[in-house]
Amino acid sequence: MRGWAAPGKADLDALTRSGWNHFYSSEYDEALSDFEKVREARPDDANALNHVLDALIYRELYRYNALDTRLYSKQGFINSKQVPIDSSIKQRIKELTDEALALSDKRLKADPGDVQALYSRGVTEGLRSSYQVIVEHAWFAALRSALAARHDHEQVLKLRPDWTDAKTIVGAHNFVVGSLTLPMKAMAGIAGIRGDKAKGLEMLAEAGKAGGETNADARIALALFLRREERFMDAVEVVRTLTRDHPRSFLFALEEANLLNAAGKTADAASVINRLLNDCSEGKYPHPHLELAYYAMGESQRGQGKMPEALQYFQKAAAATDSNTLDYRQRALVAAGQISDLLSKREDAVNQYQAAIALDGSTEEAVSARKYLAHPYNGQ
Questions:
Q1: Domains of the chain, with CATH numbers?
Q2: Shortest CA distance to 305 belongs to which of 269, 347, 267?
Q3: Element of type H or E holding 21
Q4: 131-184 pLDDT, tens per residue?
Q5: Which of 40, 207, 234, 269 reaches 20 to 30 Å from 33, CA-CA?
Q6: How far apart are CA 327 and CA 331, in angstroms?
């Protein structure tokens, strides 16, 4: 076509940066649009395809509130429900994953020491592992993918020690394996799987400070693992670097409040959430999930002993959910029922517990609601 010129490297790199800015601002459709343009221009680039896959997966996880890090700081996540992603999108994710792996494998067949192909394949396997854990709860398949991702990125670091982005997956895997119980760690050792929590945190910190493409992901993982270690204020400091770099991210701003709540600094958390809600009303954050902020405010008010205010925010959290986030409505209804019991509003509490059970009687929240129907919640 006369007058048309293929985009140059600088243009494509700018589109990729734009895509990541949209991605970390929860503008996943816009991120997908940018990444798809790069992929169209670079059809043989597995890394460009990985970006599309990343945005597609995380768009769906955000839609269903599966990016709330509080879910992964508790052992109960193992028994949580699968994320109900539409079957057509699941098929699309599988197709993109298979295509990305095929592109990397083709290059590695020609040159087993192709560092870029090793890195790209490891990223694809890492995304597949995350998807299998969060969406499918396919634990053994996820473990195989995680091990494959770690192996590829360890090879990258052997060949190119300066390829800091590879430290994100290797560091995260080191921490997870290093956090296993002694019997599980012994079994992993027999299989040749080693882990070291301290080394994992160190590698994530290095990747987070290096400024590479995975620097934000490394800091997200670092903050999550610090939370699991109950190093809440250290995690807060990490998250504040994320809010500085991505000021339009609703999730990063909310995470600061969640960590302050976990640290017992509930008044500070309330201040952060108030600012967050004000910013939401002024349109600072694209596509905010207000139910998450209301729930966090309910926790902060509860932590300060302000029970009527806590009840108000848990009720607002329940009302703000939609058909994609009914599990969050259930959680908020149970919390509202607990506060109603503490305020001696037994009839209201019963209604809230019954409404929670009616949403889904098979969850842990439903089990708790039945317990409190039989015996009013007393704070224990």
A1: 7-161 (1.25.40), 164-229 (no CATH)
A2: 267
A3: helix 9-23
A4: 998 898 888 898 899 999 999 999 999 999 999 999 999 999 999 888 766 666
A5: 207
A6: 6
